[in-house]
Amino acid sequence: MITVYAAYNFPPPLKGIVRDLRVMWALEELALPYDFHWMDTSKGEHKLAANREINPFGQIPSMRDGAVKLSESGAIIHYLYDKAGRLPKDPAARAETIRWMLAAINTLEITFIDILRWDIFWADRAGRDVRYPELLEIAKTRMAELEGALGDKPYLLGAEFGPADILMTTVLDFARHQPSVFEGAPVVRAYLARCKARPAYQAAFAKQGRGPDAKAA
Fold this sequence. Notes:
Blueprint (H helix, E strand, L loop, with lengths): L1 E7 L11 H11 L3 E7 L8 H4 L9 E4 L2 E4 L1 H11 L7 H31 L6 H23 L12 H10 L13 H11 L2 H9 L10
Parallel strand pairs: 1-2
Antiparallel strand pairs: 1-3, 3-4
């Protein structure tokens, strides 16, 4: 049985933001059975030995699958799709999937998560008046570039939803509270709405953060 090390008792603005959502979403998409090891983040349980045995940085999420222990949401999602036989067999197509997974968590995430940090955690930190406008401009540039990459495709790699879409959707959501980032990107807005309308996303979102009383798959 797959066990997701997931968070609860986190600040309400982080609902849909904490990265364990990515793993739950993948599991729901793949219809893989799983259960939870819940960690109360208000008590710092994610920093304790049970989680650090898997995730040396004491972060969320972590995952066990028998003898397999993994951290880092991108690595976990890749593993789950591979386990389910849902990664492309062709090396070039497989590389393209990985390329878009990495684009989400490398090229876009660093900017989008800093927008979240400055708005929620660093609102009073010195330097906001300089750094924040720069971040917004970078984010808008990335959105325009993503518009072009999506074109008329429903998902990043074409007609089929995949692991890169899970990562991209959740990365873009770091700036969901900042509508100016999305104003000039109707294609991306439609893409986000399409991804979030999926039953697997809705199921994962409903379970995220519920704690020990939540039922898994």
